[in-house]
Amino acid sequence: MARIVLTNVEVTIGAVNLSNHIASVTLGSTYDVIETTAFAGVTGASGNVPAAAKTRTAGLVDNSVTFEFHQDFAASQVEATIYPLLGTEAVVTVQPEFGTATTVTNPLYTFTAVVSEWTPLNGAVGELATASVTWPITGPVVKTTS
Amino acid sequence: MEYVVISNTKVCGKVKDEKLTKDDILSAGGNVEFLLAAGHIKAANAAKVTPAVKEVPQALQVTQQEEYFPVFNSVNNEQGE
Which domain holds residue A94? Predict the structure, then answer.
């Protein structure tokens, strides 16, 4: 598989494509790790692995997404799109390569994010106004490959 | 109901001036009220208001003229007296 340099990621939030105002995206999933060690469940030694080892299994998954926006107060741009969503849920899609068919090498991720935070104004003198947010995801992340 | 994209950002994969339906919006995970409020779309039939308004005065002009002239004449008569 070829390595990929991100230059044309497509991000839609509430069906609105804001890709040209997003500089960074991180979609992450972390499972709770549930310990299942029991008295009778400890297996015997094998090679240099000690006999008494904890056992674990995956629990619930916790998904989240992080965006770095370039702020824009113009009509129907970033502020006008995100601010009304604050405190609500929004369907978000993320795809590595915009304008290319959804395939195994260009999967489409769809999920519902809780728009829990927003930074309308952030930056120092001479800097680009940006907004870095991390939104928890409610429910699963659906990966489509066709 | 049909809507027209009025913002410069793509909405449901549609660019400015392209039409989309409520089903298009819902299937893309959008919210019609939110998109209307944020200025991304407008109702497609909103533009049809103009011809509809033009037709109504044409129909009313006949009755308005019939009712108007007698009143106008009576005013002139009163002023003349």
Answer: 10-34+51-144
> Is residue A3 included in any domain, yes or no?
no
DSSP single-letter state for residue A84: G
Mutate to test the interface with A, among B3, B6, B8, B10 (most CBs of A within 10 A): B10
A84 touches chain B (CB under 8 A): yes
**Token pair for residue B62?**
């006949």
pTM tops 0.80, yes or no:
no
Nearest Cβ partner of B34 from A18, A85, A112?
A85
β A22-35/A56-70 pair status = antiparallel
**Mean pLDDT, consecutive 10-residue segments, chain A of 146 residues?**
90 95 97 91 60 89 97 94 94 93 95 96 96 96 95
How many structural domains comprise chain A? 1
Question: Could you say which of A17, A90, A92 has the minimum Cβ distance to residue B9?
Answer: A17
- Return the residue of B nearest to A113 by Cα: B29
Provide the b/e sequence for A72-83 (b: ≥16 CB within 10 Å).
Answer: beeebbbbbbbe
Interface ipTM above 0.85: no
Inter-chain CB pairs, A–B, below 8 Å: 60
